[in-house]
């Protein structure tokens, strides 16, 4: 369906394993050849609102991981 991209995440991101309560659900979509990450659950929507965007950018996803949240892709 969509191509999988690999992103570099700094080593400090992996130091906080997510718990079941600290996970967000997102969905990847190709929009005119550009992969965009859309929030699905209410927590992901809150992170997008904090970032001031409707999608979650790579930088925002890295910061979410640094906070100890896990990201589940649908």
Which descriptor suits the 3D outline? globular
Could you estimate the helical fraction of the residues in percent?
25-40%
The low-confidence runs, each spanning 5 or more residues with pLDDT under 50, are none
Quaternary structure annotation: single chain
Which key terms come to mind for this protein?
single chain, three-stranded mixed beta sheet, alpha+beta, globular
Summarize the entry for a quick read.
The chain has two helices and three strands; from the N terminus they run ββααβ.
Could you describe the 3D structure shown?
By secondary structure, the chain is α+β, with helices and mostly antiparallel strands. The chain is 26% helix and 26% strand. The protein has a 3-stranded mixed sheet with strand order 2-1-3. It is globular and about 35 Å long.
What order do the helices and strands come in, and which of them pair?
Layout: E1 23-31, E2 34-39, H1 42-51, H2 58-66, E3 70-73
């Amino acid at each position: 369906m969509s191509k999988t991209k690999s992103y570099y995440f700094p080593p400090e991101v992996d130091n906080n394993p997510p718990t079941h309560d600290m996970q967000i659900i997102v969905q990847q979509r190709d929009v005119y050849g550009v992969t965009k990450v859309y929030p699905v659950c209410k927590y992901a929507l809150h992170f997008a609102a904090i970032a001031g965007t409707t999608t979650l950018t790579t930088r925002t996803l890295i910061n979410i991981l640094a906070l100890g949240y896990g990201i589940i892709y649908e």
